[in-house]
Amino acid sequence: MRTAVVIGTGLIGTSAALALAGRGVTVHLSDHDPAAARTAASLGAGTYEPPEGPVDLAIVAVPPAHVADALADAIGRGLARAYVDVASVKGGPRRELESRGVDVSSYIGTHPMAGKERSGPLAATADLFEGRPWVLTPTRETDHEVLNLALELVALCRAVPVVMDADAHDRAVALVSHTPQLVSSMVAARLEEAEESAVRLCGQGIRDVTRIAASDPRMWVEILSANPGPVADVLAGIAADLEETVHALRGLQSADASDRRRGAKGIEDVLRRGNAGRDRVPGKHGAAPAQYETVAVFISDRPGELARIFADAGRAGVNVEDVRIEHATGQQAGLVQLMVEPRAAAVLTAELRERGWALRQQ
Question: Which structural domain, as residue segments, surrounds residue 54?
Fold first, then answer.
């Protein structure tokens, strides 16, 4: 791949353009808002000048509702040898193209499983896709050269290719992406009218659950409008669980001992099912879930403190697998939780204590 066009210079389009441009591909940028394309170009993502002839690959990075229109226009103009889109829904756009009689042999639907709460070209980074799954949905009609160019795109963005059926993909993202967004927003919505005294008690748990509730509502309306059925199916299952959980909690309030026992069993059941589901979430680099031990370190809110912790962990020869920072309400301090391999926990604990860090007993 030597040349590409990116149509839509938001977060995903600009990030892909930055990755390609950084690896020597000549990237042309296009957007219905010329200012967005100019902004992406100013970041080093490419040029907003149109190509002089067909490019190797056209990447359509527009909202799902506009994917079919953008692809039909690009294919009709002979803009590229191959075409991909990066929308989060795959079945609908392809069916719409086929219903219009568009030759889809030069097109393959794709979806990089990466994103941020922020949108727009200024949120883009060249490493956004690194190590992340990038779904490809070829069909029997897909030309081999098109598939190879799509795989090259994934490789240049340093993502991990995953081949799926388009409708299976849409059901999967309904479960692992679209429904979590709605549930996060629903939990966060409970805070809108909450007493200030309650909000001040927010800790890391509520921050974890509501992090993605900061996402752009307009963008998510477009995404959910393109995949409403599978999302509704998942939410219906959650609604059934919620109804049973509410009934179990009411049982815990009962004066009858048998009702309380049934209520406790119902709550334990949903929590254990949650444990089992969480255990299936892939671990680092997509490997099987790993069990880490946590070393919790008190930290002051001063520049360089976090870097010093990691430097001390490095001196101990310990690799930090994951990290979580919990800020103390109303204080210039917090707690850093370092997740490490079980055999490394004692080594790291001893090293940090020797260097004067205050640790919390787990």
Answer: 3-164
